[in-house]
């Protein structure tokens, strides 16, 4: 499963200059409201939208170029993504690949100013070289499974200035490395889970993956029940341990061909509908469904999962996220989470926690918790990360 090692962002709203290096399987971003957490997550959504549609449409949905570029800044909006196509296991890592994208504006219209992919074939030595290099819609690409610096460079010309080169070339079998990046970005999952959406009654039919809002939750339950009954049973057993008294959950077809979720509490004979279930129960069930997807996405981005959940469930949820990210359930999906709950971050290691604040210029700054002086000593004396956050050691605290 591919994973991101580092990301560098320039001129994207409050992220005027942000560098995240040595990213972990699970990365939690902590900070007060307005510190840039949602903006950071929107970077992943923006890149996915650029690939799915084009740069112009991705910017228009966010207020156009002048609204997205950091206020008071000049130059392009740019992203540098360093990733590997393999697993977190260092013994089986593939060579790192760097993807760079710069977007600028000309005559009031956005365009792709520069886009490249580069790597080095040796383990430690040798200068990185580009096997895709496009500027202003023209450039070159080296094809093949393992493009070498000495291989033939083929000319590339992009029809429209606002279309990514990796969108077109990534469809071709001649460019497997480009295609791998395209599939990686297309597979990113940004959760906008809404409990009320999960309570809707969709048309009958299976759905293999949970939608971003959760509105197809009954369809996914039906799919698991038909295709992966043992996995569904495992999920139900786990949630029954998390939610006291919850005995079972299943989807049921109505007479008009729709699906409803039924919940059965141990003290009662009759099951009840999802609309009578608490937000926390629905949310915990949906997260367990998501984390146990038989074909998981390569990247999960989840904002403030603590909303609606009892504080005692947050440590459990953090551990579930970490287990999934480390591949305990066969997933190995990298997980990005935003939070401002001291209970959630109590379960984290310092290297998994990133602190976000705004500097005096109004731009976001990010620092990993293990890089802050005194954290290791505090924790060796029994303090938890949530305690340090609650007491304001990581900036403004949760208020």
UniProtKB/TrEMBL annotation:
One of the Pfam families matching this protein, by short name: AAA_21
UniProt domain ATPase AAA-type core: residue ranges: 26-346
Molecular function, one GO term: ATP hydrolysis activity
Record protein name field: Predicted ATPase
Organism whose genome encodes this protein: Alicyclobacillus macrosporangiidus
């Amino acid at each position: 499963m591919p994973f991101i090692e580092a990301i560098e962002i320039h001129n994207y709203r409050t992220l005027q200059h942000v560098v995240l290096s040595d990213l972990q399987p699970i990365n939690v971003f902590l900070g007060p409201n307005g510190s840039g957490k949602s903006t950071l997550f929107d970077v992943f959504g923006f890149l996915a939208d650029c690939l799915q549609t084009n740069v112009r449409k991705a910017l228009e949905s966010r207020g156009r170029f002048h609204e997205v570029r950091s206020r008071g800044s000049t130059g392009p909006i740019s992203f540098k993504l360093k990733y590997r196509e393999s697993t977190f296991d260092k013994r089986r890592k593939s060579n790192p690949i760097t993807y760079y994208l710069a977007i600028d504006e000309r005559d009031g219209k956005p365009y792709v100013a520069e886009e490249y992919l580069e790597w080095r074939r040796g383990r430690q030595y040798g200068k990185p070289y580009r096997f895709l290099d496009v500027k202003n819609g023209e450039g070159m690409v080296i094809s093949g499974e393992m493009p070498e610096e000495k291989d033939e460079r083929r000319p590339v010309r992009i029809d429209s200035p606002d279309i990514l080169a990796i969108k077109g070339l990534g469809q071709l079998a001649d460019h497997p490395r480009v295609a791998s990046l395209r599939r990686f970005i297309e597979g990113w999952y940004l959760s906008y889970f809404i409990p009320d959406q999960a309570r809707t009654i969709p048309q009958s039919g299976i759905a293999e993956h949970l939608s971003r809002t959760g509105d197809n939750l009954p369809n996914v339950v039906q799919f698991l029940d038909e295709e992966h009954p043992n996995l569904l049973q495992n999920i139900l057993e786990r949630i029954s341990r998390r939610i006291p008294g919850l005995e079972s959950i299943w989807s049921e077809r109505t007479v008009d061909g729709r699906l409803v979720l039924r919940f059965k509490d141990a003290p009662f004979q009759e099951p009840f509908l999802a609309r009578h279930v608490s937000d926390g129960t629905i949310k915990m069930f949906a997260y367990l469904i998501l984390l146990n997807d038989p074909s998981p996405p390569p990247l999960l981005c989840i904002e403030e999962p603590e909303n609606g959940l009892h504080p005692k469930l947050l440590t459990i949820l953090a551990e579930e996220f970490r287990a999934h990210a480390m591949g305990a359930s066969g997933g190995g999906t990298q997980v990005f989470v935003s939070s401002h709950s001291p209970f959630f971050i109590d379960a984290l290691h310092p290297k998994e926690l990133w602190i976000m604040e705004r500097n005096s210029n109004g731009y976001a700054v990010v620092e990993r918790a293990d890089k802050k002086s005194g954290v290791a000593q505090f924790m060796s004396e029994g303090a938890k990360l949530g305690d340090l956050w609650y007491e304001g050691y990581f900036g403004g605290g949760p208020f």
